Amino acid sequence: MGDCSCDCSVNYFSSHITLKSKIIAMIVGSIKEDIKLEKRVSLTPETAKNIKALGLNLCIEKNYANHLGINDQEYQDLGVEIKSSSAEVINSSNLIIKVNCPSENEISCLKESKIIVGMFNPSKNKDQINMIVKKGVKIFSLELLPRITRAQSMDVLSSQSNLAGYRAVIDCVSAFEKAVPMMMTAAGTVPAAKILVIGAGVAGLQAIATAKRLGAIVSATDVRAASKEQVESLGGKFLNVEQSEDMETAGGYAKETSDDYKKKQAELMKDALKKNDIVICTALIPGKPAPRILNEDLVKLMRPGSIIYDLAAEQGGNSAFSEAGKINTVNGIKIIGVKSLMNSLPLTASSLYAKNLFSFIRNLYSKEKKDFNINLEDEIIQKSLIEKV
After folding, report:
1. In terms of CB atoms within 10 Å, which of 38, 102, 127, 250 comes out highest?
2. Catalytic residue list contains 147
3. Catalytic one among 123, 147, 351, 382?
4. Catalytic site residue from 42, 64, 155, 350
5. Is 379 found in the same domain as 354?
6. Catalytic site includes residue 213
7. Is 152 in the active site?
8. Residue 159 located in a structural domain
9. Are residues 246 and 302 in the same domain?
């Protein structure tokens, strides 16, 4: 009797130790976006390999990236599990990565203690985000990351804006009915096109660089005086509005301008718009509607055949007559309102976005604890975590 009791106790104890010592790997999951609206994906085969190397498991929804020419087998070969539905992915995962804010159906599958990471545009999607927060789910929106050195590899705004600036120029050149570079021929000289870039942030600077490479004469303006040197380093001419106030936030973004500044800016635009063939608008203020820089009278100063390309159209637009997803023609001037621009470069945009996500996950995951470490003393975690909207 005593021997039996002893043996059972030892066997139970040994089994208990084995169970406790077996640590189940955390799972990162990703579901398909609505490809009618969003062609990017959050997980590429390259980043799947990197995330697996951290000691994490992965799962994705069936036919996850088929529309990009990446089949499920490529993921399976890297050890990624394929699930039959988005609900199955969400239920199986500790951390879910997405591009856009979850739908109501996806939110209904989320349970307390889950973590979800993406670009959720909190000012636009307040209702959905509040639903997620109320469920006890930890939600991180990467647009909110601080502009610090450690967060550079996670900076989704910069990676996607770089592509937007490039694509803006390509689209404009395609829509412009003249040659862009100066050409000297036996029949005569073709003058170079003149391009004005409004806003010299990441998108604006890439637009300047791309336009210069194509042979255009480029000028640019920005409310931040510090951008003058950046514009000129790329070969652009900086159009300066004289000001006494500092128009740059501590994070390096543009501030909302005063009425006095707007009047001076309008005067500067009057002369510039008459001279330029293409205007690319990129000016944004974080968390607020895009500033209206070109009113109806200013737009009409441009020559017929000119183009205004408004990258800020989805946030209200920098230009009059600008509507997201539409091309409006006024007095022979094309006003192109951009919508879902990254859908025209989904493979490259997905590659960069997935790398941003990997960097964030690597910072969030503790290899020692084999768990996600939500350390609010880490500025990256604290700034990107949404606790209420």
Report:
1. 102
2. yes
3. 147
4. 155
5. yes
6. no
7. yes
8. no
9. yes
